[in-house]
Design goal:
The complex is a heterodimer of chains A (105) and B (553).
Chain A (H helix, E strand, L loop, with lengths): L5 E8 L5 E4 L5 E2 L10 H11 L6 E12 L2 E4 L2 H8 L21
Antiparallel strand pairs in A: 1-2, 1-4, 2-3, 4-5
Chain B lengths: L5 H22 L5 H10 L2 E3 L4 E6 L4 E3 H14 L3 E4 L4 E4 L7 H10 L16 E2 L14 H11 L14 E4 L13 E8 L2 E8 L11 E8 L3 H15 L10 H24 L6 H10 L13 H9 L1 H10 E3 L5 E6 L10 E3 H14 L3 E4 L5 E7 L3 H10 L14 E2 L14 H14 L2 H4 L4 E4 L13 E8 L2 E8 L11 E2 L4 E2 L3 H15 L7 H8 L2 H7 L1 H6 L1
Parallel strand pairs in B: 6-7, 7-8, 16-17, 17-18
Antiparallel strand pairs in B: 1-2, 2-5, 3-14, 4-5, 4-13, 8-9, 9-10, 11-12, 12-15, 14-15, 18-19, 19-20, 19-21
Helix pairs in contact in B: 1-2, 1-4, 3-4, 3-11, 5-8, 6-7, 9-10, 11-12, 13-15, 15-17
Bound molecules: protoporphyrin IX containing FE and iron/sulfur cluster.
């Protein structure tokens, strides 16, 4: 299961499809900063709880993170793309998309 | 072109109404995600990394201007102002919201389009040569056959739960532009003693076990096509493995049972069911054919074209690269590059789609095609209109002269969108095309196909590229594996692995070494990359990719 020292749970909002994070009060937030940080031993249990809230979010999965001076950062590129959206150069034709640099770069 | 009859129209509307109710029940909680997921997939709705994705079928890649405008409208209204044309002649919208999808499907139905059977273990969108009905080398327009197969396979009760997805491609020309040998069934029109029939190929496929299809029947009379295809699918439905998803495609069935046994089982089944086909399918085919009559050809004065061609070098360069021979010598087939240097292969904005629709309507008999190479085709352009077409394309930023060249890259969505990806594909394509534009080398290099997939599923056709790039994950970092010598045409071949993978930083320089190095390896400028590779074998190309390894070995 979870191999990283710190982990969060991400999912996709049922309606919008956008990425949401599982929080300490057992709900979902749009902000990674709100995410509940889990030790490996707790990840599976929380994933099971998160999985019972599929009227709000679907596709729950555990994502390894690092804690950088208290700030939560995704470790894998996949999770960075989930957080920030496609690589900025991929969205040059989308005026509305506020492309941000990928945090894990 | 084919227009829905009343039955089709009602069936599609009913499906939208049904899905609208399912979405409502999912949102109010009466359907769980486990119950809803297969239902949404049946309607082309996937969940990607950071949004839903709606996949819309473009049967045999054919569109009219009204449909193209509607795709633009859908992209503008419910997505982020663009759509993505794929290797399966589909268009994907990358950002729909669940509650909007029924409205999107209704808007598609307004122009006779839908997202049915773009997913699931069914017979998927039947693809065809994108030059169908226009190409100078064509024996017979393959689209009536594709449409017949579409009607027969849509909601066919026996074939809704096949062991795995099932893809059919059809071409009517000896030059295979439809990659028929990499499909579950490939159909190629062939001529024997003045009669047109079909060569039937089965068991091709890409993915984790790439296979080139094998000929199961070298000449099938056209009137036997439907029962024969049904016999193939029916044998596969029984023999195909359901125990292991990775072994479930017909390519594995053919591999495990051998083409001889497959042939004899298919022939037996064919003999059994043939009498049930009493000619209704042939009447239907004849009726479908009337929808694919060629337009009324125009005969126009071409002197403006000749003048522009002689005097305008930018226009000339575009003509030399992006035009193909039409069956009518007064016409040309225009391939519009959706691959401007540095842009995302296959992404077109709403404005670009509308410009294409306007051009098709004004100058090109109102017809458009989507190619598996992720470009848009204007199949019937009178040569007299070519200069105006080019000017209009230039205004829409669509006049890049790079068809068939280094920057005409196929790239799957990769990790920028796809939840299954192990690496990004689009940024690699963007960097390669930008680099070769800087070098101004691609016209010198000549015909070369680069194709990129972001994981082993091979949606980007990398196995059949002259230079294939497969993005993998090696201990958390992207690693790009190169294959050489693949071929997607009638001489289809799976590329050979060149050696160890390259990091995201090293892949573009490696491709540059390889392509520029080929210029020194070729006999003369007429020897293209694939021909040189076939003559020389992999070693000199590996030496270009791995200069340091040479000294060590
Ligand atoms: C949500 C996005 C996608 C998912 C989940 C997906 C999934 C898959 C999977 C699992 C396979 C392997 C099938 C097998 O070997 O049995 C596959 C193959 C393939 N897909 Fe996709 N794909 C996606 C997007 C695309 C796109 C965007 C295209 C077109 C650009 C595409 C075209 C193909 C093609 C051509 C193949 C290989 C041919 C074959 O079926 O053997 N797919 N896809
Ligand atoms: S090849 Fe892999 S990464 Fe690319 S679209 Fe297909 S499943 Fe996604």
């Amino acid at each position: 299961m979870a191999k990283s020292e710190h982990n969060v749970i991400s999912g996709n909002h049922l309606l919008g499809g956008h990425v949401v994070y599982w929080t300490a009060d057992q709900s979902w937030s749009d902000a990674l900063a709100d995410a509940l940080v889990l030790a490996p031993k707790d990840a599976a249990d929380q994933l099971a709880v998160a999985g019972t809230t599929q009227s709000v979010a679907v596709g729950a999965e555990v994502c390894p993170v690092s804690l950088d001076g208290g700030a939560i950062r995704p470790i894998t590129r996949r999770d960075a793309i989930k957080l920030n959206g496609p690589s900025p150069q991929v969205l040059t034709h989308v005026p509305s998309f506020a492309a941000t640099a990928i945090a894990a770069e | 072109m084919y227009t829905y009859n009343d039955f089709d129209t009602k069936a599609v509307r009913d499906r939208v109404a049904q899905f609208r109710a399912q979405v409502a029940r999912r949102i109010d909680g009466s359907l769980t995600e486990d119950e809803f997921k297969p239902l949404r997939l049946m309607n082309g709705l996937y969940l990607q990394l950071h949004a839903y994705m709606l996949r819309v079928a473009i049967p045999y890649g054919t569109l009219n201007s009204r449909q193209m405008r509607q795709l633009a409208m859908i992209g503008d209204r419910w997505d982020r102002g663009y759509g993505h044309f794929t290797t399966r002649q589909n268009i994907q919208f990358n950002w729909p919201k669940l509650q909007d999808v029924p409205d999107m499907l209704d808007a598609l139905a307004d122009v006779g389009m839908h997202a049915i059977q773009t997913s699931g273990n069914t017979i998927r969108n039947v693809t065809a040569d994108h030059f169908a009905g226009a190409a100078a080398d064509e024996l017979l327009d393959p689209r009536p056959v594709a449409e017949l197969l579409r009607q027969w396979s849509t909601d066919h009760p026996e074939f809704q739960f096949l062991p795995r997805k099932f893809k059919i491609a059809v071409t009517g020309a000896p030059n295979d532009r439809a990659v028929t040998k990499a499909h579950d069934i490939g159909l190629r029109m062939v001529e024997r003693d003045g009669v047109t029939g079909v060569e039937v190929i089965i068991g091709g496929g890409l993915g984790r076990t790439p296979m080139i299809g094998k000929v199961v029947r070298d000449f099938l009379p056209l009137e036997d096509l439907l029962p024969y295809v049904e016999a193939i699918v029916s044998v596969y439905n029984i023999l195909g493995r359901r125990d292991n998803k990775y072994k479930a495609r017909i390519k594995i069935t053919v591999h495990e049972h051998g083409i001889e046994e497959m042939r004899s089982r298919i022939e037996t089944r064919f003999q059994e069911i043939r009498p049930d086909f009493k000619g209704v399918d042939q009447e239907l085919l004849a009726q479908i054919r009337t929808h694919f009559e060629p337009p009324a050809w125009l005969s126009l004065d071409q002197s403006d074209f000749d003048k522009a061609y002689a005097s305008n070098p930018v226009f000339r360069s575009w003509c030399d690269t992006n035009l193909a021979d039409h069956r009518n010598p007064d016409y040309a087939i225009v391939t519009v590059s959706v691959k401007k240097h540095g842009a995302v292969p296959g992404d077109a904005t709403g404005d670009q789609m509308r410009a294409l629709a306007d051009i098709a309507e004004t100058f090109a008999h109102d017809e458009l095609r989507i190619s598996h190479v992720q470009n848009v085709i204007l199949p019937h352009v009178p040569k007299a209109h070519l200069f105006q077409v080019w000017q209009a394309l230039r205004d829409a930023d669509l006049a890049t002269a790079n068809i068939g060249l280094v920057s005409d890259i196929i790239a799957c969505p990769g990790m920028d969108y796809c939840a299954l990806a192990t690496a990004r594909s689009i940024p690699v394509a963007q960097q390669i095309s930008t680099r070769f534009e800087e070098l101004k080398a691609e016209h010198d290099v000549g015909p070369l196909q680069i194709k990129i997939s972001g994981c082993i599923n091979a949606c980007g056709h990398h196995h059949v590229a002259h230079i294939g790039i497969l993005g993998l994950d090696r201990a958390g970092a992207e690693s790009y594996q190169i294959t050489l010598g693949g071929d997607a045409t009638e001489t289809a071949a799976v590329g050979q692995r060149a050696g160890p993978g390259f990091s995201a930083d090293d892949i573009v320089p490696a491709i540059e070494r390889l392509v520029l190095g080929y210029l020194d390896l070729r006999d003369d400028p007429s020897e293209d990359f694939l021909t040189a590779f076939r003559r020389l074998g992999p070693e000199p190309f590996q030496a270009l990719l791995y200069p340091d390894a040479q000294t060590a070995a």
